[in-house]
UniProtKB/TrEMBL annotation:
Superkingdom of this protein's organism: Bacteria
Organism: Streptomyces gossypii
Protein's cellular compartments: Cell membrane
Keyword NAD: no
Protein name, entry field: MFS transporter
Bilayer disposition of the protein: Multi-pass membrane protein
Transmembrane segments: 21-43, 49-72, 84-102, 108-138, 150-170, 176-199, 220-244, 250-271, 283-304, 310-339, 351-369, 375-393
Amino acid sequence: MATTTKIQPRALVRASGGSRYAVALAVDALGTGLLRPFLLLYGVSVLRLSAPATGIAMTVGAVVGLVCMPAVGRWLDRGARSTVVAASMLVRVLGVALLLAAPAGHVWLFAAAALFLGIGNQAWPAAHAALVATVAHGRERDAALAGGRALRNAGMGAGALLATACLAGGTTALQALAAVTGLAYLAAAALAWSVHVHAHPAAAAAKGRDDEPAPRMRALLAANVIYVFCLNVPEIALPLVLVTQMHASPVWSGAIFVANTVLVVTLQVPVTAWMSRFPRRSVLAIAGVVLTASYLGFLAANFLGHGWGAPVVAAVSVVCTLGEIIYAGSATALVTALAPAHVLGRALARFQLSTGFGLAVSPVAITALAPHGPAALWGGLAGATLLSAGAVATEKEQETRLSVAAAGREQARDSRTAGWSQRLRARRFAKRP
């Protein structure tokens, strides 16, 4: 069992890419919080588009943005790090510029803006994880990844609060928020690029893992699609259930969302550090069990009386957030630990493909299951998540057996080669006069 990682703020900032990079993350997150929660409102209020057309354009932009991930993975495997992070931010600057240039009623320009914003949003997580994995190693890397997520959630929360306060200004305020978002992305890109972090593939290959292929991670990637549903539970599933099924005040949904943000910001690093005493794969399986328990808790809350349902949902949401924290602190860290350095970019790109796909389909799945009752929604999520946790744990055993089998085959091949060499030497000796 590994020892627990100690949290040292200065070391954490250094392991995350340094103070300039931390500022870049904060500025980028602040800009994202200013616009992303209100992008639908921008399309409807400023551009006078219909809500369905706006929603479809945003969904298509997020999904099509995943197409860039194989190219991002190959770029990272050529050694680029801070340049890719900066590029993911600059692409979003272009998206904001198209948003500001779009005249009222032009859905195609809005769709193009959503596409560039989607490309940047999909490329950033893999680029950031690769950069952190280059400057930090082992459990320090895990804590740095957790610190980056906490900082990003804090910045996005602050941006969303600031944007909410400015919404009284109407369409002019939304346009101003978009312009400030573009400037924030531009400043963050400049700061990220100035860090000048670059990997050296040749040096990494010389460490002895250069002949290893990218890990398949089939069970992990499939499970991640289900795990990632938890990220949309506080934003989509709980508000939908509380308002339409429990007929509770929308204040409960807002309180749960705020509590989720605060808990992630304050507990992401400490929980990740505390869980570092266990293997990463085991921690990821534990996250699935915790999430399953929370989904069953949401299911049980539906059978309580009218006055108790909403408070119990709020209490169980804390357990769900804890599962989210454990999942977020172990999943990316596990991928970076499994992948050899020379294929890290491609492994992270594949992982982001599964994450992006899960985030894209989860709203559709949640809204489709909810009308069929609590058992369909929460029972379905609980069953799928528990199966995913089992698949994650089982894949470890399969990898162990495969490694043992591969080692046995290698040993047998070496034995055959040695025997063949000995027989060849014996024949040569026998032919001598």
